[in-house]
Each structure stands twice: as structure tokens, then as C-alpha cells.
Amino acid sequence: RLLRRPAVGTTVIRSATMDSAEALGTPDRGQVKVGLMADLIAVPGDPLENINLLEDVPFVMKQGVVYKQAD
Q1: pTM metric for this prediction
Q2: Distance from C-alpha of 58 to C-alpha of 56, rounded to nearest angstrom
Q3: How many CB atoms lie within 10 A of CB 28?
């Protein structure tokens, strides 16, 4: 498990989103911003405070379609 520190969460999330989009040459992805493409996830809490929340993602929106984890 990753440490529960905001600096760790910020680094991991940025690496998985903005930095990856830049490395792949897809600048229209990796951010939630008007005019850009974005798939979204939602977790019950703040992943910047507890990055381990990203281990169990109950909600995903991909290309406008919502997928929810079955109970």
C-alpha cells in the first residue's frame, strides 16, 4: 500500500493522468477541463489524502457511459 500523504497522492495521480497524456502525445486528455476529453472515476473520499481509495473504484464514466460497481 502507498503511504497516506497528500504529496504521494498528488504525484501518483498526476503521473497516471497528465504526465501519461503528455508522454503519449495526447494533450487533449489527462485533465478535467472544458474542451478536453476525459474519462472520470469517483471514490468515497479524497485520494489526495488516502491514495489507497483508488484500489476500489465504485464509479467510472467512460466516453459518457456510467459504470457502477455491483454491490
Answers
A1: 0.69
A2: 6
A3: 11
Length of the chain (residues): 71
Give the Cα separation of 68 and 11 in Å (integer).
Answer: 26
Nearest to 8 by CA among 38, 45, 49: 49
- 69: closest CA among 53, 55, 56? 56
- The closest of 2, 13, 71 to 41, measured between CA atoms, is 13
Q: Which DSSP state fits 19?
A: I
Instruction: Copy the grid coordinates of residue 44.
Output: 468515497
At 4, list the grid cell: 497516506
Identify the residue whose cell numbers are 472520470. 40
List pLDDT tens digits, range 7-51.
778 888 889 888 998 999 998 888 888 888 888 999 999 988 888
